[in-house]
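Pipeline run #58 for the internal structure catalog. This entry was flagged by the ingest filter as a single-chain record with no existing model, so it goes straight to prediction. Upstream metadata was stripped on purpose; only the residue string is passed forward. Reviewer on rotation: M.T. Logging verbosity set to normal.
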Amino acid sequence: MELPIQNISLNTSVILTGISAGLFYAWSVSVIPGTQKINDLSYLYTMQSINRAILNPAFFIVFFGSLIALACSTYFTYNVSTKGFWFLLITTAAYLIGTVGITGLGNVPLNNELEALKIPVLSKKEVAEFRKYYESHWNKLHTYRMLFSVLSFVMALLALNITFKN
């Protein structure tokens, strides 16, 4: 049985976008509440460690693969379903702007600031001030990208149903 490229790309989009949304949602309900319970110095070292660890092929495949798969699905669906095409175009834009954009323009610069921070030479007050600054901004941006990634996942599911509805 031969599956058309539209079906393969759209199913891949749903899977990757779902994993991405799951990662960001799980972070919101587990890592953030957990890090809120540790002291300032431990928080900064923990976030530095996590920020380094997440830069790996498995994360990049899901994070950027979602965008690539959504863009391909949008392209391949153009001649198959007008409604599906528009749904996917909006979904791709939402993921690009709300997930990739917020991450690249918001969370990553904050992570770079944290990485450049010379924690051992900071006073206790400076550590507390940086944590307050970093954590409040980073968590707010993370909430937005999590909501956009979940929205993108739900919309990709809807696009799958609209496009291949019998």
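catalog note: The two ends are 18 Å apart (CA to CA).
catalog note: The helical segments are 5-35, 40-53, 57-77, 82-116, 124-163.
status: ready for reviewer M.T.
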